[in-house]
Amino acid sequence: MDDVRVGRFVRFARRRRRWRQADLAGQSGLSQSTISLIERGHLDRLPLRTLRRVFTSLDAAAVVDVLWRGGAVDRLLDERHAAVVETFCRWLATFGWVFEVEVSYSVYGERGSIDILAWHPPSRSLVVIEVKTELAAIEATMRKLDEKLRLAPAIANDRFKWTAATVSVVLVLPDVSTARRRTGTHELTIGSKLPLRTAAVRRWLRAPIGSTGGVVFLSGSRARGTGRAAGANERAGGHDWTSPSAQRGS
Predict the structure, then answer these.
(1) Fold of the 3-57 domain
(2) How many H-runs (helices) and E-runs (strands) does the chain carry?
């Protein structure tokens, strides 16, 4: 991140609104001295959440880019994401669902992509499945899920002729301590819309009745990235979604 460039932009955006530093501070819930630090490029003294508050007040977004070995970070994250999607899709097929992946949409300015859009013909159940290898911005994730849940019936009907009787939503995360800690910290926010957890979601997928919402912590070496970590989770009683035989008794 170019700290000086960020500071120059904040100053430019503030002045464009004809705000004083005190005005921006009031909008962001920060002190004027903090705004001054940012505009002078002293970002090393500030947490990232402070920058997000300032950028939100300016109708902008602070995006942090990670450069590692010529951009391999994006490739690595894409591979992890694809592995989780693949594993979950195999389970949907086992439970009798049909599905489409990476279903993009653009509806009256609302744009995005549904990771997995799944359809259960006997019950006419439609599920929006969001896959995250890392759960960063909780509120942004929940807002986007609301958008996809609202648009999904029309997308499914127009694109695939799936006329849904019910619409549900599932958030899929790797079964790692970081993801569990993040969901635990934000249990009230997440739980209000996604009350079910892994075992209950699995039971519902086998026999969907009504609409629901839930979080799945997906274990197994394909989702976790290392066989050793996956094996440790299985010994600790985690749900291995990569092995159908492991679930017959659950």
Answers:
(1) 434 Repressor (Amino-terminal Domain) (1.10.260)
(2) 11, 5
